[in-house]
Amino acid sequence: MASGAQGAKGTLYRGREGMWSWVAQRVTGVLVFFFLFAHVLDTALVRVSPHTYNQVIGTYKNPVVNLLEVGLVGAVMFHAFNGLRIIAIDFWSKGPKYQRQLLWAVVGLWAVLMLGFLEPMMQHTFHEWFGW
Question: Which one of 13, 16, 42, 102 has the minimum C-beta count within 10 Å?
Fold first, then answer.
């Protein structure tokens, strides 16, 4: 006889919000790590050759990189909020019971803050592409 936790849906975790939260936490963590690695390398150029550093930084001032910066802010914010959610689940006695609600709170907070950040962060790109 199948256990109550598995039933017709399989496990309670696979394919559900918890799994996607786990995947998103790992993916955003890796993305932030690679950004920090690249950031340390390009910042180290200032000691080697300030002229080369200025050239590299100049390549970052375009609309495509601006879109990547928006993605980076989104990744950092989700990773931070979801990390706080994981801490709450681990250290709050009722955390596991409310993990789904906490995840949707994280997603809602993330979406509201991203909407607030979009306009100021995208001003340069809007100006370049649309003349706004």
Answer: 13
Distance of CA 119 to the CA centre of its chain: 18
Question: Which of 2, 23, 20 lies closest to 11 in space, CA to CA?
Answer: 2
Structure tokens at 44: 């180290």
Non-local CB neighbours of 117 within 8 Å, separated by 6+ positions: 70, 73
Task: Tell me the three state secondary structure of residue 7.
Answer: helix
Among 97, 95, 72, 77, residue whose Cα is nearest residue 85: 95
Class of domain 12-127: mainly alpha
What pLDDT, on the 0 to 100 scale, is given for residue 14? 72
What is the model's pTM? 0.81
